[in-house]
Fold this protein.
Amino acid sequence: MTQALLKETSVDLGDKRVPVRLYRNTRARRLILRIDSQRDGADGVAVTLPRATSQREGLEMVLDKADWVLANLGGLEPRVPFADGERVPLGGVDHLIRHTPYVAGGVWRENGEIFVTGKPEHLARRLGDWLKAEAKRRIGPLARDKAMILGRPAGRISIRDTKSRWGSCSLEGNLSFCWRLVLAPETVLDYVVAHEVGHLAELNHGPKFWRAVAELTADMNGAKKWLRLNGEKLHRYG
């Protein structure tokens, strides 16, 4: 393993307490500081340390770059919890979350609203599970249909909560997708599925690959632009 978590701590930057994660990466050649937004309600920073760099030096870097850290944390999209009265997009269309504790039925969508039953402390988990199941329901058949168009068999299709990529295709033909794609407009989900299915035929990003993707989806360029402008927002829900 080239990178490992060393320590979770926090530092005071002005009047703000900022969480810090320190990582050791034996292949890193310099200190790397980045915003870490993959936290449950507490955005912070991640510091990657080369082999011979101390944890103290990593924390000093955070303090030295305080203005940069605070500016970038302040520029993040606000988090939207899965809670009664909040709005969450589904297929790119905002839906109001309605908690209905005394009604049976689990979770369902109706007239621009998503109803969630059960105890309030279970709402976030139940809605998250429902959205992941909805992503699987939409993405699986779509990926297999597109694979059939290419004449290439798709392997296992999995749904995960990935941060660094929206989808992936292994050498064995297994496909993986981020469940948060179900929040995006349908054309965006369709493009990402087409992109990964395209790798069943071309494990590269050459001209033949992009021609295959263009044949599998209707608005490749528009979807790529939408993800570039709005993709980070999808990671701020839940």
